[in-house]
Structures are given as C-alpha cells and as structure tokens.
Amino acid sequence: MTDVLPVFLPLIGFLISFLFGKQIGDRGAQIVTCTGLIAAAALSVMLFFDVALGGHPRTHELMSWISSGAFDVSWSVRLDSLSVVMMCVITIVSSCVHVYSVGYMSHDDAQARFMSYLSLFTFAMMMLVTADNLVQLFFGWEGVGLASYLLIGFWNHKHSANAAAMKAFIVNRVGDLGLALGVFGCLVMFDSLQFDQIFMQAPSQTETVFRFLGHEFHALTLICLLLFIGAVGKSAQLGLHTWLPDAMEGPTPVSALIHAATMVTAGVFLVCRFSPLFELAPYAKEIVTVVGALTAIFAATIGMTQFDIKRVIAYSTMSQLGYMFFAAGVGGYGAAMFHLMTHAFFKALLFLGAGSVIHAMSDEQDMRKMGGIWKEIPITYAMMWIGSLALAGIPFFAGYYSKDMILETAFGAHSGVGMFAFWIGIAAAFMTAFYSWRLIIMTFHGKPRADHHTMEHVHESPFIMLLPLFVLAAGALFAGYLFYPYFVGEKVEAFWGASIASHEALHEAHHVPSWVPLAPLVVALTGIALGYLCYLWATNIPGVVARLFKPIHQLFFRKWYVDELYDALFVKPAWVLGRGFFQGGDQAIINGLGPDGLASLSRGGAGVLSRIQSGYVYHYALTMIVAIVALMGWLLLKLKGVI
Amino acid sequence: MTTFPVLSLMTFLPLLGALGLLLIRGSEETVAKMSQRIGIAVSLVVLALAAWMTWHFDGNSADFQFVEKFMWLPAFGLTYHMGVDGISVFFVLLSALLTPVCLLASVQSVEKRVREYIIAFLVLETFMIGTFSALDTVLFYVLFEGVLIPMYLIIGVWGGQRRIYSAFKFFLYTLLGSVLMLVALMVLYSKLGTTDMPLLMDNHVDADLQKWLWLAVFASFAVKMPMWPVHTWLPDAHVEAPTGGSVILAGVLLKMGGYGFLRFSLPMFPDASMYFAPMVFALSIIAIIYTSLVALVQTDMKKMIAYSSVAHMGYVTLGIFTFNRQGIDGAIFQMISHGLVSGALFLIVGVVYDRLHTRDINRYGGIVKNMPVFATLFMVFMLGSVGLPGTSGFVGEFLVLAGAFQASTWVALLAGTGVVLGATYMLWLYRKVVFGPANNPDASEMEDMTGIEKTNLVPLAILVLALGVMPALVFKSTAPSVEKLISQVGAIADAIVIHPDPESFDALIEGIDAEVQP
C-alpha cells in the first residue's frame, strides 16, 4: 500500500480539488493538494532508502489495462533505483512548487484549479516513471503533456498563452509519434511491451534487421532512435525544441516544476530506462551524443542574448538537458541521472527565485527594466546566487559534481563523438557562466531601470514563498556532495542495481588527465568575470559587440530563425493544403463531379443549387437506375461466361 | 438455445412505442409532453434490456448468442435469424444507449412536431438494433436500408436552412451504395442458395467473383463509413441535422459501415479483402490526412467535427483491413469510442447552439468563465477525440496504429500524422470557443449547462474515461469473435485459393439447403 500510495496521492489531490474546488474553497484545495504531495514526498524518500539504498526493487501489478494479443499491458508500479530516484525528485520539487504557489498565485481567481492541475501533472509524471511497460509510460508521457498544456495556457484569456499551450502540445505530439512507432517496433520485435521482457530478449536480437519505410535497418538501432525522437520532443532537444521557450507563458511555478525540473527530463529518463537497448545500439548512442551536444551549445548561444528573465533560464534548461543527453549517449547513464537530479534542485531554485523577482517587480519579466534591487530583496538575491553557482559548476555546489562528471565521462569515452561533446560542453560551460551572471547583474545590480511606481513596490516575498526556496537551495548546496558516491562514485553498481545496464563509461571517467576536471572550472570563472566586465564595469561592451557582429547576434537573438522556418515549412502549408482540399477537393472536384455535377448535367448544364426541386431527385434516380441496370446486365453476362 | 427473445424485444419494442404514440390525443402541448415521456421511457427499457444482454453475454464464446431462428419465407429459404456475437453486441448496446440520449437532448431543442420527431427516433432505433442483430442477409438488408428513411426525415423535417439539399444528398449517396449491395446479396443467394449469414461466412464463392461482390458491398459500406472520396454527404448532413440527428448519425449510423466490413467483407469475401486491402489502406490514409487538414480550416463547429469523424473512421477501415488482432480490436474499439465521443461532441455543440443559434466558431470565445462545467465536459470529449491515453479514444487509435505498423510501416507513419493533425484542429476548436478573450458579449452571457444537459453528458464523459482505463470491459467479450474472424480470413490467406469444381459446388449448395430447411 505505501508502495503505490505516492503515485496515487497526487491523483486524489487532483480529483478532490478539481471536482470539489467550489465546495472546499481555494484554501481547502491548497491544503488537500499540498498535504497529498508532502506525504507522497515523504513516502518516496522512504522508498528511496528501501529500494535504492537497501537494494529491494519490486513491481506491483495493479490491474490489466489493454489486452489484445501480444499487446498485453497492465497498470503497474515498478519500483527500482531509477524510478525511486525520479519519484524523489518529482515529489520533492513538486511539494516545493505546490507550497510556493500558495503564495505566488494568491491574487489569482482560480487557485483551486491551478493547484489541481499541478497535482494532475505530478500524478502523470509518477505514472511515467513507475511504468513497467511502454504503454503506461506513454500514458504518463502524454499525461504530462496534457498537464503542461493546461498549465501553460492557465491564463486562458491571453492569446499568447493559448498559442504557446497549443504549440507545446502539438510539437510534443510529433515527438510522441516517434515514440509510438518505437513502441510498435518493440511489439513486433519482442512480442511484448513489458520492460523486463524487452530487455531480456534484446541481447539475442543484436543481429536482427528490420524493414522500415522500405529500408533495412539494424532493428535495435531503429527502435532506440524512434524512442529517442520522443525524448527529443519532450526534452526540447534540437529540432523539436521550439515549444519550450514559448512555454514560459505559463505561471512561473509551472516553469519551475514542469519546464525545468521534471517533465522535460523525462526524455533523459527514457534513454536511461532503455539503457539495455542503447548499449546494444552504438550508432544510436552516437546520435544521442551529437544531438545532446549540439543542443547544449545551440541553446547557450541563444541564452546569452535574451532579455526575458524566464527565457534565459528556459534556454539554460534546454542547454543542460543537452548535457544530460550526451552523457547518456557516451554511456554515462549514472552521470546523466546525477545531473538530472542536481539540475532539478538548482534550476527549480532559479525559476522560483526568478518568480520571486517577477513578483517583486509587479510582473515585469524584461531584465532591461530591472536592476538595482538586490538590497530590497536580499533573500531572493542570495538564493539566485546559490542557484547560479550550482549551475555554473563552481566547486562544492551540486552542479559542480554532476557537470564535471558528465564532461569527464565524455572525455573518457575516447571516441570521436565523445571528444566532440567534451569540447562543446566546455564551450557551453563558459557561456552558461556568462549568461548566468549576465542575468544576476542585469536583474539585481546597477542603476534601477524600472519606473518609480514599480520600484516603490519592490518587496521581499512572503515566507510561504521563501520556504520552498530554502529547501531547494539545500539541494543545490548539498545534493552533489552527498550523492556523488552512489550515483557515479564507488557505490554505483550497488546503487543502480539492474536498473541501468552499464557503468563502463563512468569507470573510464575516473581515469582522465588531471587538466580535464579543471577545465570547466576555469572557463566558468572566466565566464563569470566576463559577465561582470560586460554588464557592471564596462556596460558599453555588449552593445559594441552586438553591433560589430550584427549578423551573428541577430542569428542568436532571433533563435536561429527556427520558428520562422517551421512556420514556413509546416504551419502555413497545412492551412493552405486544408483550404485547397476543402475548396478544390471537396467542393469543386468531388461535389462538382459527383452529386452536384450529376444534377446539373442532367438538367443540361443549368445546375444552380438554389433551384433544387423534386426534379433533382428524379434525375438522380434515373441516372442510378440506368447505372444499375447496366451493371447488373454486365454482371449477368459475366456470370454466364459470355464476356 | 431457448432463451428469452431479447433481441427481438429490443428491436420491436421501439416500433410498438412509436405506434403507441400515434394514439395520444390532446392539445399539442400535452401530446408533445406525453410523447417525450413515453419515448424516453421506451428507450430506457430498451437500454436496460441491452445492458442485461451485455451482462449475460458469454465473453468466452465466439458463437452467436441470444439466437432466434425460424422460417420466414420457406419458399425462398428465408429465415428470421437474429443473434449477436462479440463484434455486434456492443453496437447494439451503443444504439440503445444513444437513443435515449438523443431523445433527452431534444426535450429542450425540438419545438415543432415533437411527436413525429420521437416516432422517427423510435423507428430508427428499431432499424439500428435490428441491423446489428440480423443474421440473415435479406433481413439485414431491409433493416440496414430502413435506417435511411427515418434519418432522411429527421434531417429533412427538423434540419436547418439547407436541410432539403442535405437530406437528398444523404439519401442518394447512401442509396446508391445500397443498391449495389443488394445486387451482391442476390448474386450470393443465387450462387450459394442461402441468405443465412453464418453459413455465408463459412462458405465462399470463388475468388474472382468475390472481387466483384466485394466491390459491390464496399460501395455501400464505404458510403456509410464514410470513406474518402464518398464522404462529402456527411458534413452537409451533420450541419443541417438537428442535434439528436447528428448524434445518432455520428454515433451509430457511421458504425454500420465498419460493422458491414467486419460482418460481410472480411468473412464472406476473404480473398477479395486481401486483394483490395492496399486500396483500403490508401483510401484510409487519404481520409485521415486529407480530412484532418480540411477540418483545420472549418469555421463551422459541426462541420469540423463531421470532418474529424471521417478522419477517425479512416482509422477504423485501416484497422479492419490489417487482418491482425490489434488492428481489428482497435477498429472495433475505435468505433465504440467514436460513437461516444463524437456523439457527445455534437451534443456539446448543441448546448451552445441552443443558446446562441450559431455554429460559427468565431461567434464564441472566452466562455470558460461563464460556463465552467461545459468547458470541463467539452475538454474530456476533446481529449477523447484527440486520443489522449486514459480516454477511450487512445485505445482504439493506438491499437489500430500498432496493427498497421505490422502491415506496413509506411501506413503506420502516414496514419500517425493524423494523430498530430487531430490534436491541432481539436485544440484549435477548443481554444477558439472556450478560451481566449470574451469578445462576444452574448457568448459571455450564456448560462452554464442545465440539469438535462448534464444528465446527458456526464455519463458519457464517465464512460469515455472508464473505457480508457478499463478497455477490458469491451475486449473481454470481443476477443473470441475477433480471433474467429481472423482465422476465417487467415485460413484463406494461408491456403491457395481453391476454385470448387461444379459438381462439388452443387453438393455444397444442397448441403446448405438441407441445413436451412427445418
């Protein structure tokens, strides 16, 4: 019972606060959902000790779901190290966000609905990570997509919020299609959709070839790549990333929970979950590495040029997810999960801190209209520092341990793509530090750029919003040091058990030249220094640089024109085609040659629809009878063997 | 089996009820009220009988159950033969479920000729339930075609401005197909000497003839479905039909096409089904992509949902002709799910149409504020239509795609794009109607759903979710019948097609005659 409770407590919270929100009121909904989440977090931590540290993985089958031949799946709760780590991350961050939202959303008129959506999201995410088969995973996968859609579009009177919500759902659906094809591939290959079955059979299928879209593919590689398309969508990797920055239209707690800490990491989780397959598909791993590395640098270049405080953090998230992917791609699944965990803490901290700033600045998000407020909101300021230090990978903060581990793993892979990822990772680490301090300085230092009215209202957030920041800050401070031995260090085998296929890459990572661990630190410090130089001491530099390298700056600032490209390639053609099919296809050709055409033909070309009278039926019937007589006659002749 | 004749009772009770309504006397108002009450009561009794039947249906058997069989016209070897198996039982239930829903929905929206409206629906119910339980081709044909008459009247009498045009289009399109089917059934009779459907499923004509007959029945079912390119009657019919008419049209009538494929095309013409499967795939894929794109540009709510129906039915035809377990399971489930979801979506449109008398998407917007219950229920059905896991829509769509993947990865990929497009137009519709700024004052003043509307839609929403979480409710009864169907087709697929020599063929027909004669 306590094993499955953490998964279903959020569902109960959702149902109560959604269906009876009016009866129990905003306060009641907040109490119900927060209590449910905190209890779920406590239970998850207990499970972490028992399952991961104690080494007792287990699976509970709750109920049969879909059973159609080999397509036979159940609702289940699978508890192994991988899933309990995710459960802890999800429930702890979600509890923080729930509590924070009580304060942040206190002026909103639909608080019960907001809390219920947060709980719905948490439930779907828990179903995703505790899935024992691909279809339940798909349920969670699309379920978090739904919650994300609802929460991005939470302020549904705003056009921009609705557009962003739709975009998120649809772009994710493209990825989901890839994932679905991967699921079908597994069904064909393994005759099962259950994880253990798939992983057990995988080693005997390494030679199998599968015919897909008319081409022969190495079956396991194909399946891994199809699953990876799903991961690319959900985790906003290069190609299917366009929805994530727009998703910042949602309230800030949503960005912290869904678009930083949990949902977007589902793709990383998927790759780690399928490590037994990826280990047998080296080519797929290389693609994962390259896509991850490219995303890491691509997002970082954009992050350096944006002015919206949330978008900067959003691009930073995308970039960090890229790190996780290339870590997994070179076989460092433990390192990927480690960074996933630490990142959840410090990125949620940064987002909630940004929310605190936005709250203080009367809903202003443009950093050009901030500045000079660090004395007014010192606690928020300190929290943003902790988060940024962790993000930049400064020693002894959480991000230091995980990011260094990733870079060392990439280096230790001694492969072409590994080195590619390593150097890109170093470059992106420099940019990360730069844009982080750009953010801190533009937001908090210098002369105030906001108007009088706003400045007078700048205030520190209430305790209920600060408390979650403290919890997350504790994570950003200590999670790296505490969990290093388990996630990637000497206890790695015992900790992950059978949930991750290989730790080879991590062992290699411990034997890299001594300059390798130092390199990220050096570039991070340089980045911070440059941030100070450009935005505090010599504030005319950014403008000069932007002017000097105008095309490049424009390219970064306009997000490499990917949105414009997709608009021209997919969105506009879809509408044009739709109109063409409707007016040209349905109305002109099919109706024109079909029913309407026949009618007008039979009336000697005087077919005007408005004049349809009974004669219309008559002509129609006549045509039909003639046709039928002809057909029957012909059939009879055919049957008699005349023709 | 000497059981309670539940199928006949369900079939003819509505007809009796309809006759009873003719006897009511009094002022127009009394007649209307009484008709509504009696109509709803009768349809609820039928629903109870259908529930009883489904409950007592033996899910472990592939045989026809609740069978009634006696001679009808002995001179021609015609029998009155009724029965349901795992494939048809849920369509009977669906028909019995949606009829009271339609009648209830009409209480507020139909004001003229109420009695006649109720009568039309009760007669329609007779034909629908009869169609799904008939096991004799003549009986089937009569009932299958009979459906057209009340439906034609419902659109033509109680429809919108262009109702006459739409009604004719509907009638002629479907009749054209039906006539071809009649030809096919006559040929079958002349060749095999029986009109008994189970017998026809077990005995086939030779492969060449199968192709012709397959095409003839295909014409009929494809129009009913409707498949591209014979779908253009559907948007017009839906747009002009009253709410109840749209619900029953989308909810049940379209399923007759899919049911026909499962009952006739596959088991009776297995060789031809194999032969034509690629063509069906092509038409299905075109239906899915083409009509999804067309749905995207509609500004009329009903038209958009009508086009989405064509796309969703594309999955059904696709699934059926994969001839594998997931494909056919998915197709059956998709039909049931679509019956509930699209039926409910037309009710949803009816809710706002009754208030504002327009189906123009742009005339609404921001109504989540004043109609929160409506917005929530609309959301559930929208998600069902989009095929979100946890709703019934997912199970059917996903299984069909899984089945299609095994038949051809190209087909699965192309059909899969419909999943993306489907999300696009449904979210677009929802966004334009429910979300956004409240720019239309009259739309922002609409009141939330009435008790009757909730009574109608809440159970449907619960069903959509329950079937999404526990599809076993359906699959546990359909499994043996689907397996049998696959073995009927599969046996042919495996074996080389045998052309029976004339003598043994005559012997076969004699054998059938002997069996039919009492």
* Beta strand count of chain A: 4
N to C succession of SSEs of chain B: HHEEHHHHHHHHHHHHHHHHHHH
**Over all CA atoms, what is the radius of gyration of chain A?**
28 Å
Helix content range of chain A = over 70%
Quaternary class? heterodimer
Structure summary, number of beta strands of chain B: 2
Describe the strand arrangement of the main beta sheet of chain B, using strand numbers: 1-2
The coarse overall form of chain A would be globular
CA(first)-CA(last) distance of chain A = 75 Å
Q: How many separate helices of chain A? A: 28
Question: pLDDT under 50 segments of chain A (min length 5)?
Answer: 604-618
Main interface: chain pair and counts: A-B, 67 and 71 residues
Over all CA atoms, what is the radius of gyration of chain B?
22 Å
Strand content of chain B: under 5%
Helix/sheet category of chain B:
mainly alpha
Mean pLDDT figure of chain A: 87
Commentary on this structure:
The complex is a heterodimer of chains A (643) and B (518). Chain A is 73% helix and 4% strand. In chain A, a hairpin with a 2-residue loop joins strand 1 and strand 2. In chain A, helix 2 runs parallel beside helix 4. Chain B has one domain. The C terminus of chain B is likely disordered. In chain B, strand 1 and strand 2 form a beta hairpin. By secondary structure, chain B is mainly alpha-helical. In chain B, helix 12 crosses helix 20. The interface between A and B is large, with 67 and 71 residues.
